[in-house]
Amino acid sequence: MAEITLSGLAHSYQASPAGAADYAIRQLDHVWEQGGAYALLGPSGCGKSTLLNIISGLLAPSEGEVRFDGVAVNDLPPEARNIAQVFQFPVVYDTMTVFDNLAFPLRNVKTPEAKVRERVAEVAEILELTDRLERKARNLSADDKQKVSMGRGLVRDNVSAILFDEPLTVIDPQLKWKLRRKLKEIHRRFAVTMIYVTHDQLEASTFADKIAVMYDGQIVQFGTPRELFERPNHTFVGYFIGSPGMNFIEVHARDGEVVSGAFPLVLDAATARGVAQVCQDSSNVKLGIRPEFVEVCTEAGADSMTAQVLQVQDLGTYAIVHLGLGEISLKARIDEGKPMPGHEAHVRFPAQHLGLYVDEFRREDRR
Amino acid sequence: MSLTLEDVSRRVGGQTHVDRVSLTLEPGSFNVLLGRTLAGKTSLMRLMAGLDQPSEGRILMQGEDVTGRQVRQRNVSMVYQQFINYPNHSVYANIASPLKIAGVGRQEVDRRVREVAEMLHIEHLLERTPLELSGGQQQRTAMARALVKDADLILFDEPLVNLDYKLREEFREELRTLFERRDCIAVYATTEPAEALALGGYTAVLHQGRLLQYGPTAEVYHRPATLTAAEMFSEPPINVLEGRVREGEVSFDSEVHFALDNDLAGLADGDYRFGVRPSHLAMTPRADDDLALDVAVELAEISGSETFLHVRNEHVALVAHLPGVHAFGVDEAIRLYFPVHRLYVFDGEGATVHVPRSAGAR
Amino acid sequence: MNKVRNNRAWWLVLPMLALVAFSAIVPLMTVVNYSVQDVFDANTRFFTGTEWFVKMLNDPALQAALARQFAFSLTILAIEVPLGVGIALLMPKRGIRASLVLILVTLPLLIPWNVVGSIWQIFTRGDIGLMGWSLRELGYPYNLTSSPVDAWVTIVIMDVWHWTPLVALLCYSGLQAIPEAYYQAARIDRASRWAVFRYIQLPKLTNVLVIGVLLRFMHSFMIYAEPFVLTGGGPGSSTTFLSQSLAIMATAQFDVGPSAAFSLIYFLIILLVCWVFYTAIMQMQKDRQSGGPHE
After folding, report:
1. Domain boundary among A219, A240, A261
2. Disulfide check for B126: which of B92, B186, B281, C98 has CB 3.0–4.6 Å away?
3. How far is A214 from chain C (nearest CA, A)?
4. What's the pLDDT tens digit per position in C168-204?
5. Would the CB atoms of A242 and B191 count as touching at under 8 Å?
6. C292 pLDDT band (50/70/90 cuts)?
7. Residue B38 is nearest to which of C1, C2, C294, comparing CB atoms?
8. What is the β-pairing status of strands B30-34 and B202-207?
9. Of the candidates A181, A205, A240, which is a domain's last residue?
10. Nearest chain C alpha carbon to A107
């Protein structure tokens, strides 16, 4: 178990980087606390695999420091850092049996055979591989192979952290949840720091206690799945988390009203004041509200706006309604059983679910 | 230009990849082939395209028998999982290639290439080569190449699988609008029920080479013809409870039972399987006659605003899809309720005997 | 069946068929014809059945040549395969150095075979050849034409020099195909260099090595030009391999019947070895497929 600290980290793949665009990771300071289950979430190319490789030691950062329990490990190779890493596609030693695969890391450091057998049996039991220990590794299915990859990381006694680089990519969708469950079980049992890299927000939410959302080389928010959902710090987080992502409406204040384009929005007083205030400082002001929280009513009310229903998508247990408010397009999520609007709908934006974003970052001081 | 498959089968080396599939696709329709890996989706698409010949059966395009015709003589485009592009040509040349092969004039080629590139938002990338593009952009190039040909039949073989989750969502939206105004037939293979629902159109559910059901997507979802179709078209999978009807009462594992009422009154005595959708299970009863089930939590999968709860007791394992975030500990004992009026009933062979009246009602 | 086959394409194959018939099939049948007959002159021939075959198989000179041939093939395989793998492991993977090393390694392969023989013949001469002269200076009485041991060793070294690059190139391409993740995982597992070789590189090289061994065995089994130019088969018949034996018998002695029989035997041996390798490759491919993700 180790607390991993990233300090002033930056990395560029080019020998002499010219500007910010050449950096894969920019000015990152972060602490991964001991024993936590973390997810590193972000789109392709945001730098998450780079970050993972820096933590494990497969890549040396251009700038900054990586510390394990306060001790700088920049110069330590992966072998010396006590890290286990599971890759995107299963890496198994084809010619060895499952047992030998799991025993490999222990035998490499000359562990006594009795201890090896004990540890392998323990890990095999957790991963439900006990009945396959004598099989050749290359004859296994993809998810069994991935389990063996994970197992090799678990057999070692003093692993400081286990890093997962999109490990469920090759797994059949039907079996993914089983492996996710295994991972949670492993985390409970071994209480080891786990960092899980993915681009799938569902996977991140189900696995992690806390998620670090990465965008363009930086961690833009670090919080529980709930926090990320309800209070995204950055428009990117709002867009990336949740399916579909958050609605963002560009607004500015005009003559005491809040308008988007030419369309006046009906908002509560506090929000309207907040918008008017920040519009003095910046021209990039957005209001964000999640489709789950857009209220769609069949009847007009004092604080509702009339929208055109552009399209209704039936997704089984819920429906996504595409609405048009003037030039603005919005999505609202309506659960099964609730009344569906016809050609027109009346929408409300409840104050507690509206977020004010200035220059892409959330402002809270309007309360 | 409609496409009809009559009793089409394909057997390779003793294995049946496609088993007596009969299907008619109308022009202008967007059709989803839904099934697990190895269900026969790719095999079926290859037969439609003419890349493979069926072992049995006929394929007709607009009434004309094209079974023996090679793919080059059929007007077909295909988009693959692995963003296949000519790596050394520019995006423009890639998209233009089918037109050039068909001998279309240069001005016409230019017009159509730019038109399609704009539709797919890659008009600013026309001079680059595929190697310089991101995965999403490469796949757009492959799609543009398929669309520019204006083929009668466009096939998509799980094209979004190698893309990021969010990119997939965006692509799906675009696909819907792209095909709204065309009168070609689009066929899209996927393993994810959510994707089928998001794309709409028509869905054909495949399982082990057989066609289980074909119809408008919402219809197939809400009214599955068989238990297997219900299971295939549901993620998380529909919960199945074994039960029996005896003397006007339905009982599950001898503890939970309820009286047959109006909806189910017509059920004869016997053993049945009852399907409950995960989203119909709830923490609190929503109606007076909701049934209660005591279970222990195996895993709580949390996603933003909803929870997928995997539970079990000694008789059954279920998945519940609950709104809101519920962080349960493992092995915690809870009670779930499910509404009797929303049960699907399947007989011993898996055929649907009863569909809840509220299914699909909006 | 509703398959429509386009049979017109078969007509296009005819010219090639005629060519192959003319250059290969007809001569082969002629050989078979000769092997079962005793030809005294153009008009007198007797059908002898398998007499020639039996005689050839029992001929001591041929048996010796066959033994020498096998010894040669196995020796060079035993040297070239490990050496080729070793060179491949040392070759750089990327950058300008990789290209330069590739060129250097490939050079011996580009030389015409009889020229290879000539190069080595001059190289090993006691008077003007660097190797011959150096060995004599160092005190070793090196003589290619009189010592069978010297002749053998020289031929083996020549073949190793000439053909190891092929094995090295095959292994090099095989190594390039190994994804980086395997090496990374091995580092994390703290595997030693030897373990990396044994458990990652060697297994992944099996396919490529089978092909390499097949190619080298086949070629060494028919080797003609290089030893002929270098030693002429001598001293005596100590380096006369199978192909040379056969050539002498057929052309110099003009024993058409026996040499035809013998060449058929030769052909069948090679066919047998090929078949064994082919079956091994097919079996390995099948293993790979059946051990795939869907069990």
Report:
1. A240
2. B92
3. 23
4. 999 999 999 888 888 888 888 888 888 889 888 988 8
5. no
6. very low
7. C294
8. parallel
9. A240
10. C191
Instruction: Output the CA angle C39-C43-C44, nearest 5 degrees.
Output: 45
Domain count, chain A: 2
Residues 6+ positions from A181 with CB-CB distance below 8 Å: B298, B299, B310
Containing structural domain, residue A58? 4-240
Across the interface, whether the CB atoms of B134 and A241 are under 8 A apart is answered: no
Q: The domain spanning residue A300 has which CATH number?
A: 2.40.50.100
| C:2-61 residues touching chain B, CB 8 A cutoff | 2-4
Give chain B positions within 8 Å (CB) of A45.
Answer: 134
> How confident is the model at residue C293, as a pLDDT?
35
pTM of this prediction? 0.76
**β-strands B76-79, B153-157: how paired?**
parallel
Q: Residue B38: its chain C contacts at CB < 8 A?
A: 294
Strands B30-34 and B76-79: unpaired
Q: Please check whether residue A174 lies inside any domain of the structure.
A: yes
Domain-embedded: residue A227: yes
- Is B361 a residue whose pLDDT tops 50? no
Residues 6 or more apart whose CB falls under 8 angstroms from that of A359 comprise A282, A284
Please list every residue in chain B whose beta carbon sits closer than 8 Å to the beta carbon of residue A201: 165-166, 303-304
Residues A307 and A186 in one domain: no
Residues A313 and A181 in one domain: no
Q: Do C2 and B38 touch (CB under 8 A)?
A: no
B265 by DSSP, 3-state: which? coil
Can you give the CATH number for the domain in which A150 is found? Answer: 3.40.50.300
Same domain, A343 and A259: yes
Q: Does ipTM top 0.90? A: no
Residue A291: list chain B partners with CB under 8 A.
Answer: none
Residue A63, helix vs strand vs coil: strand
Of A87, A94, A139, the CB nearest to C185: A87
Domains defined for chain C, CATH in brackets: 55-290 (1.10.3720.10)
What does the pLDDT read at residue A274?
84
Structural domains of chain B ordered from first start: 3-224 (3.40.50.300), 239-354 (2.40.50.140)
**Nearest CA among A83, A65, A85, A84 for reference residue A74:** A65
A5 forms beta bridges with A31, A67
Whether A164 is in a domain gets the answer yes
